[in-house]
């Protein structure tokens, strides 16, 4: 219902501008995402205890993001160099240099603003993509669910949960962590930019979001490795493939760096 309300607000030319100014779109989106979290926690398992664990994962992800932000914030403040002050001389040459410096600074700020905007869109896209994939996988786990009870299992329970419990737990918690991290990242990207004092602080915040997305994708990789095969040996092969691809990319970046230095 919140999604339909968002669509109505966006397609109505008389409503979308006031909705953007009043942050109604962000509030509707945030409320819808919390509803999605509840739906995932209730629909991905038949045990109340496991549903509680999924909400604990949300708290863990939020604490991790807060810790990362504090680390980047203090690291940035400790390494920030002091900016020298320029005396007020009334010479024409110094005024021209000051005007040129202000123009360069304005151009730099404009480029930084565009970069931050592009970074926010990129992170939002990745968060939505991973959330969609992990939500579907959580409600329809690999191997499907038992259609009827009997023979030591209950109807509705995942087949992998009863046949290969360790693998299912590895899949479920990797997938759930990835899903929760995606939702939290999307929620935090909806925070208005006005609460940040300057673009430097906002840039550090986006670096934290980028790091969280990387860990989010690693969780998705773990869920794929655990849920896409029946043997641990095949899962090991998946991680070996990842290492091989990462090594190829590292070699490519290293060669590009050598080429730029030689030029």
Automatic annotation (TrEMBL):
It comes from the Eukaryota. It comes from Panicum miliaceum (Proso millet). The chain crosses the membrane at residues 20-40, 52-75, 122-139, 168-190, 202-224, 236-258. The keyword Electron transport does not apply. This is PGG domain-containing protein. Residues 93-113 are annotated as: Disordered. It holds the Pfam family PGG. Residues 114-230 form the PGG domain. Keywords: Membrane, Transmembrane, Transmembrane helix.
């Amino acid at each position: 219902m919140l999604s339909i309300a968002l669509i109505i607000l966006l397609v109505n030319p008389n409503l979308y501008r006031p909705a953007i100014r009043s942050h109604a779109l962000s509030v509707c989106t945030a409320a819808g995402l919390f509803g999605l979290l509840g739906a995932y926690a209730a629909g991905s398992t038949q045990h109340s205890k496991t549903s509680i664990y999924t909400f604990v994962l949300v708290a863990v992800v939020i604490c991790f993001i807060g810790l990362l932000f504090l680390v980047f914030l203090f690291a940035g403040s400790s390494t920030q160099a002091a900016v020298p002050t320029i005396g007020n001389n009334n010479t024409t040459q110094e005024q021209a240099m000051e005007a040129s410096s202000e123009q360069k600074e304005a151009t730099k700020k404009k480029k930084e603003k565009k970069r931050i905007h592009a970074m926010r869109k990129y992170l939002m896209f990745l968060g939505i993509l991973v959330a969609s994939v992990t939500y579907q996988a959580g409600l329809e786990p690999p191997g499907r669910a038992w259609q009827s009870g009997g023979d030591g299992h209950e109807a509705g329970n995942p087949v992998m949960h009863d046949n290969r419990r360790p693998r299912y737990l590895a899949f479920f918690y990797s997938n759930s962590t990835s899903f929760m991290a995606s939702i939290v990242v999307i929620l935090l990207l909806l925070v208005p930019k006005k609460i940040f004092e300057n673009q430097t602080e906002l840039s550090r915040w986006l670096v934290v979001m980028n790091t969280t997305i990387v860990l989010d994708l690693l969780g998705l990789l773990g869920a794929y490795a655990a849920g896409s095969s029946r043997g641990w040996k095949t899962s090991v092969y998946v991680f070996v493939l990842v290492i091989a691809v990462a090594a190829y990319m590292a070699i490519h970046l290293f060669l590009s760096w050598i080429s730029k230095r030689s030029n």
